[in-house]
Amino acid sequence: MTFDSKLLSELRAVVGAEGMVEGRASLKVYECDGYTLAKAAPDLVLLPQTTAQASEVIKLLAARRIPFVPRGAGTGVSGGCLPGDAHVMVGTSRMRAIRNLDLANRIAEVEAGVVNLEVTRAVEGRGFYYAPDPSSQSACTIGGNVAENSGGPHTLKYGVTVNHLLALEVVLPSGEVVWLDRCGEAPGFDLVGVFTGSEGTLGLVTAAKVRLMKKCEAVTTLLAVFPGVPEASRAVSAIIAAGIVPAALEMMDALVISAVEAAYRFGFPSDAGAVLIIELDGLAAGLDALAERVGQACIGEGASEIRRAADEAERALLWKSRKRAFGAMGRLTPNYCTQDGVVPRSRLPEIVAVITEVSARYGLRIANLMHAGDGNIHPLILYDESKPGEAERVVAAGDEILRACLDLGGSITGEHGIGVEKLGLMGAAFGTETLAAMADLRAAFNPLGLCNPNKVVPTDRSCVEVVRPRPRGGG
Ligand SMILES: Cc1cc2nc3c(=O)[nH]c(=O)nc-3n(C[C@H](O)[C@H](O)[C@H](O)COP(=O)(O)OP(=O)(O)OC[C@H]3O[C@@H](n4cnc5c(N)ncnc54)[C@H](O)[C@@H]3O)c2cc1C
To answer: Using one digit for the tens of pLDDT, what is the confidence trace for 284-300?
Structure first.
């Protein structure tokens, strides 16, 4: 799309030359996120530095009916910040101020472009932290976390992003700035909840008030080694069935272990078929006994070894191995696609059997990484994009796995969102009335479809038109 020079100079007047990215080479940086099977560069990137600037540029775009897509750090793994039908990208990478730390009330007010881990870094010296901890936390932004309702290894006990939000500052697609407030159990609709997980389709989040947590008195991290994924999966259910809710309960299979061991040298046993990383936290008193019970539950399901991180350094290395596992996959393959689905945790062994079968039938290696306690699977499908037809097989294999998640009573995404990747599966996941309700909700905030158009709810409206038109205003 070409923009008229008057608009470009008006936009430049708002964000400055440093806030505008133009030209093919510079725009190529923005052509994809972590879902590299789809690529398309925007025609213009705007990087406002303040909420007022964000509001001004969105007003200028809205006046000309030019759609835009929000972007944080571009670590999404479903293509959510791909331009699609929007030609302009509005990024938050220059909105990185921590506006206020109110430790007495345990609230941080941060701008949307603040990197997740920076929130914890700002308060950890005082014994606080920000709980949602996506494995990408050293790069992803708070705005992106809100848009995706991101989770992380500690979601099992502490919940996802929406459980830690008190208020959002938002620029609506019209350019109007509003605060959506939940502080003090504000009455009325929970608009923070509505915005969270809406994948940038309702407006641009410019700041958030987030809840801070006090660090637990004690924490201990166990590594349980299993002969295979089925045994480890059964142990996950056994731990929860014993009435224990670990802070984190993560699984890696043999393929992932081989990659992270090569990268980080933690000392995982070379013959392990799968490992569970189990973190327990709380009061120091009783934690040893809890660890003992967890160990026994694992041994009861076939664990050959239970190791407890000896000190903070070993614990940190274990978590580094887990949280950087995606990056380590580069040691095994030129390309991989991270899938993201959910099943009830008791059905993990069944979905693992499906993944094994799909892997064999498609001739594609699939590594398994899981937020196992949540039943959230991440099959990593390894491929080589230079081999003709391989990328298409990856898409088809991923599609089969996600449909199997639905058949098992789960969902097509646990935390990575719909983006462009899973739009075609929304009709399988939701009924027509639900999709129509989602479309209506989006239209209430984004009536002209100017903000991240054609994402989340399919635009092929054949599946949602069934319940329209319908009477309005009592008519
Ligand atoms: C190695 C790796 C590990 C990961 N681990 C996890 C994990 O453990 N848990 C998890 O949940 N996810 C994980 N992810 C996925 C990803 O990091 C999260 O979805 C993250 O929240 C995206 O943040 P971002 O700033 O990169 O957003 P982007 O990728 O830039 O955008 C994601 C979506 O949010 C929208 N958006 C971004 N900023 C805003 C804003 N300010 N206002 C409105 N909409 C906005 C975009 O339009 C897009 O639809 C991982 C990704 C990688 C690459």
So the answer is: 999 999 999 999 999 99
Cis ω on the peptide bond leading into residue 349 (within 30° of 0)? Answer: no
Amino acid identity of residue 296, one-letter, is Q
CA of 141 to the centre of ligand 1 (A): 7
Query: pLDDT band at residue 474, thresholds of 50, 70 and 90?
Result: very low
Give the per-residue pLDDT at 464.
38
Q: What backbone phi and psi angles, to 5 degrees, belong to 252? A: -130, 140
Per-residue tokens: 88: 């302009």
Task: State yes or no: pLDDT of 414 exceeds 50.
Answer: yes
Strand order in the sheet with 204-211: 98-102, 107-111, 204-211, 165-171, 177-181
- What the chain holds in terms of domains, given with CATH numbers, is 5-91 (3.30.43.10), 98-214 (3.30.465.10), 218-327 (3.30.70.2190), 333-426 (3.30.70.2740), 432-467 (no CATH)
Tokens standing for residue 328:
């380590």
> Which pLDDT value is given to residue 184?
66
- CA–CA dist 376, 430 (Å, integer): 19
Which phi and psi angles does 158 have, rounded to 5°? -105, -5
Closest residue by CA, ligand 1 atom 44: 200
Q: How far from the centroid of its chain's Cα atoms is residue 5's Cα? A: 37
Angle between helices 51-63 and 5-15 (to 10 degrees): 170
Of 117, 126, 123, the C-alpha closest to 145 is 117
Stated as kind and residue range, the H or E segment containing 401 is helix 390-407
Ligand 1 atom nearest residue 80's Cα: 49
Residue whose CA is closest, atom 24 of ligand 1? 144
The β-bridge partners of 308 are 222
Quick one: which atom of ligand 1 is closest to the CA of 206?
A: 41
